[in-house]
Design goal:
The chain is mainly alpha-helical. The protein folds into two domains: 1-53, no CATH class; 54-90, no CATH class. Helix content is 54%, strand content 7%. Strands 1-2 form a two-stranded antiparallel sheet. Strand 1 (34-36) and strand 2 form a beta hairpin. The protein starts with 13 loop residues before the first helix and ends with a helix. The model has no long low-confidence stretch (mean pLDDT 87).
Length: 90
Amino acid sequence: MSLHIDEINLPLDDETLDHLTQFTKTWALSNGLIFSTNSRDEATYLPHMLLPSPIPRKQYEKALAVQPGFNELMWKVASDNEFLTSALKR
């Protein structure tokens, strides 16, 4: 089953929505986006979005501006074994 994003016209008709929903569920299960249910022998797909959600440009630009600092913070935390050990002991 293949689907190309340029083939999707909004708003989605019921047939396209059903096809897209089944496609993404199958993709999620095939690519490890799963979690165990209450039963040991069952798994299901993780919740996910069918289509990207638009955001205001100003918010997008703010996110871009803080991303380098956030990346550096995450790298420093991940590289600080002493800090991680201490934080996880609590």
